[in-house]
Each structure stands twice: as C-alpha cells, then as structure tokens.
Design goal:
Helix content is 44%, strand content 10%. The protein has 300 residues and is of the alpha/beta class. Helix 2 (58-75) crosses helix 3 and helix 2 packs across helix 4 (103-114). The radius of gyration is 19 Å and the shape is globular.
Length: 300
C-alpha cells in the first residue's frame, strides 16, 4: 500500500503527444520513488483554462471545474485533489473558492451540474503537486531517495506567475519564493541565487496575439539565466516550460541570438536524482536537449 494517495487531475497538456506529456512521465517516475499513489479522477474534463478565448463565461468555467471536483468526491472520497499543471490548479482552486464563497454561484453551478446528475459539495481541497511534496513529505523526506545527486549542475528556478499569484505556496514570498531553489538543493543541484526573473511572466497569453511582446519577455529571462551562470531553467508550469523552450529558436531567427537553454520540470530533476532513466524522466521529449541531465541519467 502506498504511503499516500490522492485524487489526481492530470490535465489536457499531459496527455500522450500533448505539449507536457513528458511532465506526466516524470511525475509518475517521481511518485513511484516516493511511494505516492496518484489515482486519476474518472472521466475528468478540461479545466477550462482557455474557455474565455472561445467566448465562454464564468458559469461555464465554474461548472466544468466543479464537475471534476464532484467526480473526485464521488469516486475518491476523502482524497485531496492534486493537479500538476499550474493552470489547472489555479483554475480549479479559484473555481472552488468562488463557488464556496457565493450562495448564488453555488446554486447556479448546481443547476448546471444537475443536467449531468451531479451535485457539488466542495468537500475536498485542491492542491498543486508542489504543495504535496513540500507539505506532506518535506525536504528531508524528499532527499532520502536520492541516489544520483545533481552535483555540478546550476539551475535557474523559474516559478512564473500561476503558482505564485494570487494563491502561491503557503509560507512563500510572492516576490522571492524559495521552494524551487530548495527542491533543487534537495536533489543536489545548485540554484542560481537572487535570479531577478524568478517570478517574471513568460508572456504565455501573448504567444499568438502579440508574439513580439511574448518573445521579448522570454528573451530577457533566458539571457538573464545565462548571465547568472545557469545550465538549465526549471519550472512547475507546463505553459512556462513550453513557451520558454519552443520560442528560443524563433527569437534566434528574429534577432540573431544563440539561445539554447534547456527548460525542465522539477519532477524531471527529482526523477533523475532518484535513479530514473532518460526515458523514465521524460528527458527524450525535449526540443532543446538537457544534455547534462541525460548524461547523469545514463550513468550506472
């Protein structure tokens, strides 16, 4: 029996061949090492992160998230709901807080859910995987499975926007959250101290409508990571990971730069440190290959 079990909301981007498929691969490897069981919510649906772009309103967004929460309550009673995607976590948690805090929104949401034979109760908390690691395990416990410390590799801990505001991680500063730095240290890596772009926006929502603005933000944070001696950037957010990795080549074409900075998930660092192979840590699915991590993962 696993040490801990949670109701898992995987999210769309983690599905096979989606942009963050390797995130889920590494999360599964990390959880195996920690004896942590993530049971997917049956028949889960999209968290509605992008529904406003398609003309959807607040009730539609709330009802879609509430449906996932209800399904977790029904099928996995007593289990905390955990998301790995920063956007999914933010949307689900915000929806829960709005519904729980308004009798009118609760009534409207349940009216919508009634069409599917569901009723929202709001009994389970919504948490990010990072919260689970820090609060339910702790850094000392997370260090115990380390068999391949990431010694000699320097990481810029890129928290981004969505796991930092408006909720953030309990006990962390909004301006200078330290949990990624601590996770890096826990697995033997070296975090870049006082990196000024730790909570800068990657321009995620501007990628298509205003790419010049988005790419300016990405260029600034990648160049700053280089200037501070980082070998890689590490993040808890799939949108940040995709944006900062994918658009470096376009920035190079447009501006004559030579950006080639790997962008990783914290779970990939932990998986490698826990002894995972290149494939098990999802290191074989990057546009910019994380050579140093791949070499470490291949060592016997």
């Amino acid at each position: 029996m696993a040490k801990k079990e949670y109701a898992f909301y995987p999210g769309c981007s983690s599905q096979p061949k989606a942009s963050a498929a390797n995130y889920l691969v590494s999360v599964n490897s990390m959880c195996k090492a920690l004896d942590l069981k993530m049971t997917p919510i049956p028949d889960w649906n999209c968290c509605s992160a992008s529904i406003s772009y398609a003309g959807g309103g607040q009730l539609e967004r709330l009802a879609l998230n509430a449906r996932n929460l209800v399904l977790a309550e029904q099928h996995l009673p007593g289990k905390d709901i955990v998301a790995t995607c920063a956007g999914c976590w933010l949307n689900a948690r915000e929806s829960k807080e709005k519904i729980d805090g308004s009798a009118a929104l609760l009534a409207d949401t349940n009216k919508a859910l009634k069409e599917a034979g569901l009723t929202y109760k709001g009994s389970a908390p919504v948490r990010h995987m990072v919260e689970v690691l820090i609060e339910d395990f702790g850094y000392d416990e997370l260090k115990k499975p380390v068999v391949k410390p990431l010694a000699g590799i320097k990481f810029a801990g890129y928290v981004g926007c969505q796991t930092n505001r408006p909720f953030g991680i309990a006990g962390e500063s909004f301006e200078n959250p330290m949990y990624l730095d601590k996770l890096i240290e826990t697995v033997g890596g070296e975090p870049i101290a006082n990196w000024e772009h730790k909570v800068s926006c990657c321009g995620g929502a501007l990628g298509f409508p205003e790419p010049e603005k988005s790419q300016k933000l990405i260029r600034e944070l990648v160049e700053s990571a280089y200037d501070n001696g980082a070998d890689m950037i590490v993040t808890p957010c799939p949108l940040c990971q995709a944006n900062v990795e994918v658009y470096q080549s376009e920035i190079n074409r447009n501006h004559g730069t030579k950006l080639n900075m790997p962008v990783m998930y914290y779970s990939q660092l932990m998986s490698v440190a826990y002894g995972a192979s290149v494939k098990e840590a999802g290191l074989n699915q990057h546009i910019i290959e994380p050579t140093k991590l791949q070499e470490l993962a291949q060592k016997k």
